[in-house]
Amino acid sequence: MDKKRELLIQLLEKKLINPSYKKIAIIGVSCRFPMSETLDEFWENLKLGRNCISEIPKDRWDWEKYFDEKNIYTKWGGFISDIDKFDALFFDIKPQEAEMIDPQERLFLETAWAAFEDAGLNRAYLERIDYNAGVFVGVSNCDYEWLSGEKTGKGHVNIAGSTYWSIANRVSYYLNFQGPSLSVDTSCSSSLTAIHLACQSLRSSECEIAIAGGVNLIYHPMHYLKLCAANLLSKDNKCKSFADNADGFVDGEGVGAVVLKPLDNAINDCDQIYGVILSSSINSCGKTSGYRIPNPNAQENLILKSLDKAQIDPRTISYVEAQGTGTIIGDSIEITALTKAYKKYTQDNSYCALGSVKSNIGHIEAAAGISGLIKILLQMKHKKLVQSLHSEKINHLIKICDTPFYIQKDITDWEQPFIKGEKYPRRAAISAFGASRANAHIIIEEYEGKFIRDLHPPYLFVLSAKSKERLMVYVKKMLDYIIKHKPDVSDITYTLQVGREIFNERLSILVESLDDLIEKLNRYISCPYETDKNIKYQSFKANRISLPTYPFEKKRYWIDKVEDRERIYIPPKNTLEIMLCQLWEEILNIKPVGVKDNFFEIGGHSVLAVSLMAKIEEKFGKNLPLATLLENQTIESLAKCILEDSYDLPWKSLVPIQSNGTKYPFFCIPGVGGNVTYFYHLSQSLGYTQPFYGLQPVGLDGISKPYTTVEEIAYHYISCIQEVQKQGPYFLGGHSIGGRIAYEMAIQLEKQNQKIGLLAILDVAAPIGDLSDDVKKYFYDDAYLFCEVAVVAETFNKGVKLNFSYDELKELSWDGKLNYLKERYQNAGLLPKEAHVEVIRGIMEVYKANRQLIYKPVQKANPFKIALFKGKESDIYKYESDEICKDEFWGWRRFSDYPVDVYIIPGDHHTMMIPPQVKTLAGFLGKLVTEKG
Fold it and tell me: How do beta strands 555-556 and 352-355 pair?
């Protein structure tokens, strides 16, 4: 009894001082590698022995322009597709923000979500563990900043960047993970090091689950220039791991993530288990004869440390996924270190297969380790060993016959080792040796546990997505997978019930069998039908299994929406054009500006247009209407206007932004500022078939007196549009307060027995009931008015802060407020220093009049159709009455005899009107304006 107690104490002490005894289960996997968008595709490429290397795609750079035997001497790489695409709205990220985020961060976010789903987890599970989850990601390149800098250098100022810490924290933020969250850069060993740190965190109970992996993308030729300068890249399209003609690696891209959980917990939760991490270790090469020279002794010690932690004999390891970058010296040092470590346990030779996934997809740097790990997991799943490519003649420095290893040159069954009469599970090891001289090693074992199913049909199949279109894509994706793999129907339905988020668009089907499920999914694809969204989930036990994950929408988000093609620069030819070029360069922060450049296509917008016209008045003494810029969008055209001695445009409310086209004209009214240049991007996005007119208020010239009632404005605007279109149907629109004016115009036109084809209300609430004191304060208080103008200016001029103070403004007179605004606009560079306060007086008088005159409640219903376009992030109506806030259609529903169609547009109240969000608005709006009879 005493001996047993002593042994027990020793075992407990060992566990207390060495927490690595806790095994870690891999329960979820997701990846994208060259020519492999999914796990299935990756396995098919490995199984077929496919070389997934291609020429550098044209959407990265034109390799022929950069190819140089002395500099960039290769045109090959392993690339993934659609790195510019992202489902920003799925993750509640504003489109303009998505463009600024490094695609590595976006790609890892989607991959982490897919791995989380593949593990059969959702937010309900996170609640049960108090969100004690961690994120660990390997990353080592920041090419996106080179693109950003290059664009800025060409005059398109851009603040896009690469921040490693944000890659991990973006995942933690979206999923509300509250455990460790860190990005790791140890060059080529980054992702394997990240996995090691995740395992350590799980073993020490810092978190209960973890997502770990790595990502690497290549955007810029500078990346290749650096690698070629160090003579690291192969000259051809083959990464020749262990080969005698090895001449360097082929660079590549990829992303992968795994979900990790302590093995005991995974078994208790009936999780699918791809494999079990027995141990992991990291170390550094320390001092050697040169900074770039690896240390075989350090590599050997690393492997021995991992074996000791795993408490296994390497004779039971039957596969090693090597670093195998394809260099004569590096490969031989790696095999030497492995051999010396294994020979301390056994003298047997040629019992362990050796391979490198780099021979298939290239060296994907920070994500190299995760690609090798996923290869091992797939081999364990399918019980096959796949061939390592391009090693017909073995490296002459590797005496392979005298080592425990042999190169896996064919696809074979992966048999469980049978040693001295005992069978062992399939075990594998993987190494990653970084150029940083930081090393990582992991030992993995297959899992053979079985779960008992509690079967009782019918089974409830559920699936959901954020839109009908995505749901249909999801159904097709799921059906293809089910037909190909034929998983157990109870496992399918159980996984989808307990391991997926619930979104707005849902499909629920009761089925009796797998064949029944396939038949009903086919029927749904042929003719979608309504399903009962309230069917209760069934309570039975089955297995979580790997199933297709959410089909993200692929929308392009890339830095700077200015065309990638070079602008053709045409210099100014006279003094006036030179002066205008200087003004444009100052306002747009672009150099040089040519006389053929379009103001709105090189970064101009409505707020900058106000500043430009103010500068022109100050410089040339020409008081040009703001709308002049819409008719003269280049310096060449604008200069002609200024040179004409008789130039004296009468004030016009109707501004033709695009006067040609086959559709009915669309007449649109701007918000309180009355600035019709605000609609330029909308008109351009609608295209050449759509005539588009803006309506600007009387008084914007600073001379005429604004109208004081909404009825007067509407009557005036109707007289203007009927100069262009005598009879209906009329297609009207209005943004913000302009929507209220458009509504009044529609009412008056109906009284004239004119037909209204469309009333498009662009982000505005209906004028319902008496105004509350808070609303009156907001819309009648001049201090609030000036603060709102500041918000608009800050929105369009990103990075500009005007620091308006309501408390300061409320103490000033009207002229004092104008001077206050002028001073801050000038300090921010939005107005010339010499500008007089009269420059902005007319605009602010219109602002004031418009805000106060149109909030008269309307009590009658209308017989025409209303289409409401709501900004997704809009908060412009936070001051509205409770009655409006409670109405799902902002009050417009009660004013129409027809259903109110609601369209959600990316961006907020202002940004929905500018690229890229305005394209979504135009896409919806363009379908509502019909062709002429």
Answer: unpaired
pLDDT score, position 861: 56
- The pLDDT score that the predictor gives to residue 15 is 44
User: What is the Cα–Cα distance from 415 to 383, expressed in whole angstroms?
Assistant: 7
Whether residue 863 is preceded by a cis peptide bond, meaning omega within 30 degrees of 0, is: no
**Beta pairing, strands 133-138 & 209-216:** parallel
Show the 3-state SS of 511-567: ECCHHHHHHHHHHHHHCCCCCCCCCCCCCCCCCCCCCCCCCCCCEECCCCCCCCCCC
Residue-wise pLDDT tens digits, 693-721:
999 888 765 566 777 778 888 999 999 99
List, in order, residues 6 or more apart from 334 with CB less than 8 Å away: 299, 322, 323, 324, 431, 433
State how far the Cα of 796 lies from the Cα of 910, in Å rounded to an integer.
8
How many whole angstroms separate alpha carbon 195 and alpha carbon 186?
12
Cross-strand bridge partners of residue 276: 25, 445
> What pLDDT is stored for residue 155 in this prediction?
56
Contacts of 10 (CB under 8 A, 6+ apart): none
What does the pLDDT average to over 198-227? 95
Residue 619's pLDDT band (boundaries 50, 70, 90)? Answer: confident
Structure tokens at 856: 């008269």
If DSSP states are collapsed to H, E and C, what string results for 143-169? HHHHHHHHHHHCCCCCCCECCHHHHHH
C-alpha 111/C-alpha 33 separation (Å) is: 11
Q: What 3-state class would DSSP assign to 468? A: helix
Q: How far apart are CA 136 and CA 194, in angstroms?
A: 5
Q: What is the dihedral of CA 587, 589, 592, 595, to 10 degrees?
A: -30
pLDDT tens for 182-212 read: 999 999 999 999 999 999 999 999 999 999 9
- Return the number of other C-beta atoms located less than 10 Å from residue 468's C-beta: 11
Residue 405 has phi, psi (to 5 degrees) of: -115, 160
SS3 of 464, please? strand
DSSP three-state, residue 730: strand
In the 8-state DSSP scheme, what is residue 771? P
State the helix-helix crossing angle for 296-310 and 328-343, rounded to 10 degrees.
Answer: 40
Q: Which candidate, 504, 503, 495, places its Cα nearest to that of 272?
A: 495
Q: How far is CA 270 from CA 208, 460, 542, in A?
A: 16, 19, 8
Dump pLDDT digits (tens) for 257-271: 999 999 999 999 889
Please state which of the ranges 192-201, 232-241, 838-847 shows the lowest mean pLDDT.
838-847
Opening angle at CA 37, ends 33 and 41, nearest 5: 90
547 Cβ contact list (under 8 Å, min separation 6): 118, 478, 481, 487, 492, 495, 496
Neighbours of 284 (CB within 10 A): 14
To the question of pTM greater than 0.70 for the whole model, the response is no
- Distance between CA atoms of residues 687 and 667, nearest Å: 15
pLDDT in tens, 164-187: 999 999 999 999 999 999 999 999
What is the maximum alpha-carbon separation in the chain?
114
> What pLDDT shows up at residue 618?
73
Which tokens belong to 762? 């662009």
